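pasting for the record
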Amino acid sequence: MILKALYDYYQRCGDLAPIGMEYKELGFILVISKNGSFVRFEDHRIDSKTANSFLVKKHVGRSSGIAPNYLYDNSSYVFGYAKEKSDKALECFTAFRNKVYEICELFPNNSDLKALKLFYNNDQCLILEKIKQDPLWNEIEKSLSKKFSNFSFRIDDDTEIIAEKKEILQLQKNDDGAQEKICLITGEKGIPVETTTSTMIPGSQATAKLVAFQTNSGYDSYGKTKCYNAPISTDAEFAYTTALNRLLARDSRNKFMIGNRTYLFWASSNNEAAQKTEESLFDLLGFVDDDEKDDPNSRIENVREVFNSIYTGEIRSTLDDKFYILGLAPNAARIAVVFWSETSLQDFAKKILRHFDDMNIGKSKKPYTGLRDMLGAVTLSKKHTDATPNLPDAVAKSIFQGYPYPYSLFSAAIRRIRAEQNVTYYGGPCRIAIIKAYLNRLNDNNKKIEIMLDKDNNNLGY
């Protein structure tokens, strides 16, 4: 279900990289002349964390082995330099140079590749000596551990880097005699991938994968190993990993983080209801830009109106319009799925509106409390990141799936009120709202606790 939903998201989006390609951050470009001489480095950093992205061939999967990318890579491969000196950097450089020579043989008449071949005809030590004289070298050394620390080439006076030129991109499939299998995602025949592409989330290893099979284990059966146990075609694997990376992008408004959990959300369709749901959920959860924090009331009221319009049918949606929420957590060598929700847009809107009503305590500076505020209100430090590990998942299930609020949230709110003996300053109104919401959902048969004092409620506990 998860992979199919991600695959459909790729098909829905029209601006994602085509099959076999990806948008890759390249922090620095080596500008070379037509005779293969190094001219200068070109800085493509945007800030200290990001750089310009280029449409290049999809990166190769590697864990500990040596496998060069297609005309771009990190410093170890491109010019054989690493912060910690080792023989592996030279091996990586040799592999990348051989890759360049192989590509040159495929396109013997391409002038750009001829220049690149002349550049790599030089000794590695000579190449390193020349590029170290560039004024940007100190900045490059400081940035080697950054995600954008990748390098490619551009011919002087040209506008495109060599790695993104269509005429030299080899995107044809190389099946090596592999047999077609039924893809578990699409249901169509295709050449299965042996291993899936790594996808990094905050806190995980760089080689972590959403789908992985342990070799020589109980999962191996009928002589099949790795992904051949559950075949996924190369096109489907590319589609779902590309969609996943889009949702995980640094500037994505389809994700939020609580502690070490990363939550992704998206809709199955591209109609008005789906777009407004995606746009509203980010604000609803309390993840807003600094310039929007001055007036949270009007923003949240707009969010409420959107979900109310979807639920009442004012904004049209069908039963086939689904909304997905995926919770991920870092694990030793894989990405763990800790939360998954699939529901119709109307049903999702109904659950969000119920959460609005449950957490409503009338006259308050904040008419709605987001997930972050709920978790922060029940911790000593007032920080949502200090919440107990399982609490974010439990509260998310309550909000998105309509389950009763967890007892641990309720008891934590009671403890903080007793400890601080105050319900008026930061966190106080939120704790009151949590208690009200917990009791109302605990037993639907009981008389609901209203926003104001109910003089007609004769329940002894009330």
